[in-house]
Write a structure and sequence with these properties.
225 residues, alpha+beta, 5-stranded antiparallel sheet, 9 strands, 28% strand, rod-shaped
């Protein structure tokens, strides 16, 4: 009976540790949900721009159809700016507009990843075409009719991520190496605890097993003389 109770306690403990393990693997995903793989602080003079290829340390900047681009831009100080999300060909047109001093070129941009004359902007863009994508922070008077007119230096904080589509259309978040190491270490520690508990309970059960009964002490039959 005692052995059955101990085994039941061991099962409950193992179940608790298993739930704890699953929690350590799932909770970091929610904790990291609003963090970005790339975080920059850009300081631009009037007439300047900065371009950032969308990608991360873990993946290249070449995106596939079905990937997602997530970004959040905030002007910490200074006037309004323009934010553009550009496909590779659009980026070439933008550079032509930005680098030519004598002429300007009207460039197009991805609507739901771009906003002009703003101080704050966040978005999620579903990639429709394979290729390279760029986020532009623009503090210049460009060829667009509705762009922001620079008033001086700006300090811009931006975070952005590429969410990989993975295989068979399943999305895989870009998890930092630190989070993976923490989960792996927690998993190993829990396994060691479970093994130690099983060993202790097994030894305890063996210790509590009563010794085998002694043979009955029959009276000895007198030997004939």
């Amino acid at each position: 009976m005692g052995m059955m109770i101990d085994l039941l306690k061991c099962r409950k403990l193992c179940l608790f540790l298993f739930v704890l393990l699953i929690s350590t693997l799932i909770i970091p995903q929610f904790a990291l949900a609003k963090e970005y793989d790339n975080n920059v602080l850009a300081i631009l003079d009037a007439g300047d721009y900065k371009a950032y290829p969308v990608g991360s340390y873990y993946y290249s900047s070449y995106l596939k159809k079905g990937d997602k681009i997530e970004a959040e831009i905030n002007v910490k100080s200074g006037g309004n700016i323009d934010v553009y999300l550009l496909y590779e060909e659009q980026y070439d047109d933008y550079l032509e507009d930005a680098n030519n001093t004598n002429t300007s070129k009207i460039f197009t941009f991805i609507e739901n990843g771009s906003k002009q004359n703003t101080k704050q902007f966040s978005y999620t863009h579903n990639v429709e075409y394979d290729g390279k994508y760029y986020i532009i922070i623009d503090n210049r008077d460009n060829s667009q009719a509705d762009d922001a007119v620079p008033t001086g230096n700006v300090e811009v904080e931006m975070g952005y991520s590429r969410v990989w589509t993975g295989y068979n259309g399943l999305y895989y978040p870009e998890i930092p190496v630190e989070a993976i190491l923490i989960c792996a270490a927690t998993f190993i520690i829990l396994i060691v605890i479970i093994i130690a508990v099983v060993i202790v309970i097994t030894k305890k059960e063996k210790k509590n097993i009563p010794p085998p009964p002694m043979p009955p002490n029959f009276p000895q039959t007198p030997q004939p003389r």
